[in-house]
Design brief:
- The protein is an alpha/beta fold.
- It has one domain: Maf protein.
- The protein contains 7 helices and 7 strands.
- Strands 1, 2, 3, 4, 5, 6 and 7 form a 7-stranded mixed sheet that branches.
- A hairpin with a 2-residue loop joins strand 5 and strand 6.
- Helix 4 crosses helix 5.
- It is globular, with a radius of gyration of 17 Å.
- The mean pLDDT is 94.
């Protein structure tokens, strides 16, 4: 009998990726204040990748306290441009400014995943994808956002790589799962090692 698996997220893409891999799981969103965790790390020397991992662990541990004995998966992703961590855009004007900010530059998507049991993280992994955006004209950005619509506000970079957002890039160093916010291959390897899925 396999241990139950809980995803501490309601992210549609993460649920789709796990289900697509044949994993049986339930969901229960973590109840943590992400900005408070980020503030607590300010000045500590933590990198954007460190922040993603701390948040993934916190989500897994907090949620696992409500599901004794279950393997709880926590995930987080930060977008960093240099040392700056960027957050989701509240509106389309902010999305326009975000794409202008990223235009012609390489940013990083720091995707972290952790597994916790009964309040303690038993495993964690962070994978980084490097995304090089083409130089984009303001007019193209406007047309792109018109086509993408409100979906652009669903990701911190104001793009969906699985949709129209792929047109923004000239180079990508990283796998699709990392970009989507769930490093699936290392997660599946660990779930097999823990006996949670057939190996």
């Amino acid at each position: 009998m396999y241990k139950p698996v809980i995803l501490a997220s309601q992210s549609p893409i993460r649920k789709t990726l796990l289900a697509g891999a044949g994993i049986e799981f339930a969901t229960d969103s973590a109840r943590i204040d992400e900005r408070a965790v980020e503030s607590a790390l300010a000045g500590s020397g933590a990198t954007p990748a460190d922040l993603a991992e701390v948040l993934a662990v916190a989500k897994a541990e907090e949620t696992s306290l409500r599901h004794p004995g279950a393997l709880v998966i926590g995930c987080d992703q930060t977008l960093s441009l240099g040392d700056e961590v960027l957050h989701k855009c509240p509106d389309m004007e902010a999305a326009r400014r975000r794409l202008l900010q990223l235009s012609g530059k390489t940013h990083e998507l720091n995707s972290a995943v952790a597994i916790a049991v009964d309040g303690d993280a038993v495993w964690r992994q962070t994978v980084i994808a490097r995304m090089t955006m083409r130089s984009l004209s303001p007019a193209f950005i406007g047309r792109h956002l018109d086509a993408a619509g409100e979906k652009a506000l669903g990701s911190v970079g104001a793009y969906q790589i699985e949709g129209e957002g792929i047109n923004l890039f000239e180079a990508i160093d990283g796998d699709f799962f990392t970009i989507a916010g769930l490093p699936l291959l290392p997660l599946l390897a660990e779930l097999r090692r823990l006996g949670a899925i057939d190996g």
